[in-house]
Design brief:
alpha/beta, TIM Barrel, eight-stranded parallel sheet, globular
Length: 294
């Protein structure tokens, strides 16, 4: 399974717009998600696949995912047959609601890998949790294991979740707090990478509201955010990256604790803060994200 670093931003781009795919790969987004689902009209879902296939091959050096259509859509087998290529990093699977859905997509991928002579487990998956049932079953979903392992992390989709709940999404995001927190806790409890937060779609021009929304997600334990417009990338990359001060303090913590541990100590103070093993692990995580792991 391909190693994918920490994801701060994952930019959606419509699969029926090859020109936008070319532009998307030139952005600073960590991952590009070519969308075969919501962004594509039903009449075009089959005919765009060959074009998407060409773009995956053309941009093979970029971290590319494809959002396939849902398991019950009738399109997913065709999506996988055409776009599950060696050059693809993984798949975003919408409307995942149960652990069995993880096993179902795993079985489909095994069939495709065997048919194409691709190593089993080549494709990573990111289940998109976007219904009340999905949130209720979040831990079961993200703790479900396959052989070989495929689950990279999970992502939250607020638009379909709000539709399912019959609620309206606001800029403050209060109505999403429980579902976000539940998914973040589930991923941590299952010992997988932190999840990706829902795209901010209320007002694409309100970048201040986007920044506040991303800050809330980071505080809840998300590693990054799904994006629907290139103007969201710089802000989200910044929000989900450690600051210079955080990096400097983390480095100081790790260095001081290493010395203290060598001296037989397991609890010290750094800048008047109590530092023990959990704090050290947090510091190491910051340095890893920053690419400055000691």
């Amino acid at each position: 399974m391909e190693e994918i670093e920490f994801i701060r931003t994952a930019l959606f781009v419509p699969g029926n717009r090859p020109d936008r795919i070319d532009k998307a790969v030139d952005t600073a987004a960590d991952v590009i998600i070519i969308d075969l689902e919501d962004a594509v009209p039903h009449a075009l879902k089959k005919e765009i696949r060959p074009g998407v296939r060409k773009k995956i091959i053309q941009h093979k050096n970029r971290k590319l995912f494809v959002r396939v259509n849902a398991l019950d859509s009738g399109y997913i087998r065709g999506d996988l047959d055409e776009t599950a290529l060696e050059e693809l990093s993984g798949l975003v699977v919408p409307k995942v609601e149960t652990a069995e859905h993880i096993q179902e997509i795993h079985r489909l991928l095994l069939e495709v890998e065997q048919k194409k002579g691709i190593q089993p487990g080549r494709f990573q998956i990111v289940p998109l949790i976007e219904t009340a049932l999905g949130i209720e079953n979040a831990f079961q979903i993200v703790s479900e294991r396959t052989e070989p392992e495929r689950l990279l992390t999970a992502a939250f989709g607020a638009a379909d979740f709000a539709l399912d709940m019959g609620i309206e999404i606001t800029k403050s995001g209060e109505e999403l707090s429980y579902s976000r927190a539940r998914l973040a806790v589930a991923c941590r409890a299952a010992k997988i990478d932190p999840p990706l937060d829902t795209p901010f779609m209320i007002d694409l021009k309100d970048l201040h509201a986007l920044e506040e929304d991303a800050q809330r997600a980071r505080q809840l334990g998300f590693q990054g955010k799904l994006c629907v417009h290139p103007n969201q990338i710089e802000i989200c990359n910044r929000i989900f990256s450690p600051t210079g001060e955080e990096i400097a303090f983390a480095k100081k913590v790790v260095e001081a604790f290493n010395q203290a541990e060598a001296d037989g100590l397991a609890a010290i103070q750094v800048e008047d803060k109590l530092i023990d093993y959990p704090m050290v692990e947090h510091a190491k995580r910051i340095l890893k994200i920053a690419g400055k792991e000691l």
